[in-house]
Design brief:
Blueprint (H helix, E strand, L loop, with lengths): L2 H18 L8 H5 L3 H10 L11 H14 L3 H15 L1
Helix pairs in contact: 4-5
């Protein structure tokens, strides 16, 4: 290997280590209290939540986001409510 290739490999290793390093608490105590993905998945499973990916029309998504913002609720909560109302109306 050339010296430049070795240096590129060192740089990529350093970048990989920086990406995997835990974030410091410098962004406030709220940032440190957010669970990581694995913990959040366990919390969601305990609450009976299941990931459900769908593809929606962009206009519909914008309407849902606007309504969630207007009502001050989280988007998943609004979508849950809308789907339940639609199923009950059927």
């Amino acid at each position: 290997m050339k010296k430049t290739d070795l240096e590129k490999n060192k740089a990529s290793k350093i970048l990989g280590q920086m990406r995997q390093a835990p974030s410091s608490g410098r962004f406030g105590s709220a940032a440190a209290s957010v669970p990581d993905r694995r913990e959040q998945r366990k919390i969601d499973q305990a609450n009976g939540l299941v990931p459900f990916a769908v593809k929606l029309n962009a206009d519909l998504v914008k309407q849902l986001q606007a309504q969630a913002e207007q009502e001050g609720v989280a988007l998943p909560d609004l979508v849950d409510r809308v789907i339940r109302a639609g199923l009950l109306a059927k």
